[in-house]
Specification:
Layout lengths: L12 H5 L8 H11 L20 H12 L19 H9 L12 H17 L8 E4 L2 H22 L8 E5 L5 H8 L3 E5 L10 H4 L7 E7 L11 H15 L5 E4 L7 H4 L12 E7 L11 E5 L11 E5 L2 E5 L9 H38 L3 E3 L10 E6 L7 H12 L5 E3 L8 E6 L6 H21 L4 H5 L8
Parallel strand pairs: 2-3, 2-4, 4-5, 5-6
Antiparallel strand pairs: 1-7, 6-7, 8-9, 10-11, 11-13, 12-13
Bound molecules: pyridoxal-5'-phosphate (PLP).
The site of pyridoxal-5'-phosphate (PLP) has 15 residues, from helix 6.
Length: 481
């Protein structure tokens, strides 16, 4: 049925009479649109309020698909740690389970069992000493909030048992952490004790945390694979230091490892490096399934060393759809697909498969490092002898009329690559860095193409000078996602 609507050009009917007879009015065009056209070709996309009437399913899908073209291509996005490609069979599993509400354990008990299998496999991968527990989360941010809440609760129990005050908790971490750690402190009323970075040292070690620890310290958070350069804090050194404090001062300060990215890299590339439950003070670990766990966005994991590390009073027991259910989450309803996709990867790849993928990514990252250093004017942050995520972090070497932000803008202008440029946190804020995440969607020939594009961008900037300020403003400057 034809709908009453204004002509798309906004002219009223009287004015449209003045048209030349061969030029149809908007209304005339529209009367045929229901047969030949798409409604949104004639009017703006629904914006401020729900449209009075809808459109066909096919039109609605095309409207969205066409607008999505304005977004960048996920495969061009070298800024994000998050997975942009999965196998078609994984896509099938995801597509078939989109309607499953993960939290509905009573109706979907097998999904709940698969979540537990994933937690058991991760606990084993991270060398948990025995039976333990954990949670599926929306990502590492939720896992960190829950892990840090557990630290706060356990600290409070310890202090109350000694009849001590519980009003001034603090948490110690380095400036190299993701912003979520400061967010936790603000949201949950904990004093952040942040160890500043140094101009030439972008991770932290035992000597850095020592002055900040006291009896109100709920824990120390360390990073395995920092967002900024992909390196790890000296977790072993910090653990040993905390063990010494325990023996000398009687303070039992737990460690939480933020392995958002590194938790799926270190076990495969550096299996002998001890950062996990092999270390005495490590009580909890978070990891993002949607980063090097190789699953699309929407999945993270929290794993405890022992069941007892999850305080009982943080778990909610309720009657849901006729069954007693236990939950430890910040959210409630959410999709089950990404849990199943994670399990797909575990079953499909196994240890050897993950190792193969990680070795391939590292190989390509090294190839890209060599490409871009051959172009000259670039210094790689990190060396082949250092444990690092599969990424290439680099900065300009020497003096130039342009800087890293110009290089990022030039690369985007020439080929659409999204490579972030950013400054490091205090006290290394004068250091500018660019960083390319090497994922499965950046194969060997694309790394070669990217290397050549970086060389070309440098040459263009050398000849024409820096970009205009408006171009520089468009550069992605946030390293953490
Ligand atoms: C070290 C680190 N921790 C936490 C996060 C937050 O993770 P998510 O995006 O999974 O919430 C990130 C994200 O990049 C990260 O790199």
């Amino acid at each position: 049925m034809a709908r009453e609507r204004q002509p798309p050009d906004g002219r009223d009917a009287a004015r449209s009479h003045t048209r030349q007879s061969h030029e149809p009015s908007g209304k005339q065009i529209e009367s045929r649109a229901s047969i030949y056209g798409k409604r949104y070709l004639l009017e703006p996309a629904p914006d401020h309020k729900l449209p009075k009437s809808g459109m066909s399913a096919e039109e609605a899908a095309s409207l969205i698909e066409e607008e999505m073209v304005l977004d960048g291509l996920p495969t061009h996005n070298l800024a994000t740690f998050v997975t942009t490609w999965m196998e078609p069979e994984a896509d099938r599993v995801i597509g078939e389970t989109l309607r499953v509400n993960f939290i509905d354990h009573a109706e979907y008990p097998q999904t709940a069992e698969i979540e537990r299998r994933c937690i058991r496999m991760l606990a084993d991968l991270f060398h948990a000493p025995g039976e333990t527990t954990g949670a599926r989360t929306q990502g590492s941010s939720e896992a960190i909030m829950l892990g840090a809440l557990s630290l706060k609760w356990k600290w409070r129990h310890r202090m109350q048992a000694e009849n001590k005050g519980v009003d001034r908790p603090n948490l110690v971490f380095g400036g190299d952490v993701h912003v979520v750690w400061e967010k936790f402190c603000r949201y949950f009323d904990v004093e952040p004790r942040i160890v500043p970075l140094k101009p030439d040292k972008y991770t932290i070690g035992p000597g850095d945390v020592e002055p900040h620890i006291d009896e109100n310290t709920i824990g120390v958070a360390v990073v395995l694979g920092t967002t900024f350069t992909g390196h790890a804090d000296d977790i072993r050194g910090i653990n040993d230091h905390l063990v010494a404090i325990k023996h000398e001062r009687g303070l039992d300060v737990p460690l939480h490892v933020d392995a958002a990215s590194g938790g799926f890299v270190w076990p495969f590339l550096y299996p002998d490096s001890e950062w996990d439950f092999r270390l005495e003070q490590v009580r909890s670990i978070n990891v993002s399934g949607h980063k090097f766990g190789l699953v699309y966005p929407g999945i993270g994991w929290l794993v405890f060393r022992e069941r007892d590390d999850l305080p009982e009073d943080l778990v909610f027991y309720e009657n849901y759809l006729g069954k007693r259910d236990a939950t430890f989450t910040l959210n409630f309803s959410t999709g089950a697909s990404m849990v199943l996709a994670q399990y797909y990867n575990f079953a499909r790849l196994g240890y050897d498969g993950y190792r193969y993928v990680m070795e391939t990514l590292r190989y390509n990252a090294r190839a890209l490092s060599q490409e871009i250093t051959a172009a000259g004017a670039i210094e790689i942050v990190g060396g082949e002898d250092q444990e690092q995520l599969p990424l290439v972090a680099f900065k300009l070497a020497g003096e130039h009329a342009y800087d890293e932000f110009d290089v990022a803008a030039q690369l985007a202008a020439e080929r659409g690559w999204m490579v972030p440029a950013y400054t490091l946190p205090p006290d290394a804020e004068h250091v500018k860095i660019m960083r390319v995440l090497v994922k499965e969607s950046l194969g060997h020939s694309l790394t070669t193409a990217l290397g050549a594009d970086i060389a070309r961008a440098l040459e263009t900037l050398r000849i024409k000078g820096p970009m205009h300020e408006s171009d520089r403003k468009r550069v992605k400057t946030n390293p953490g996602f």
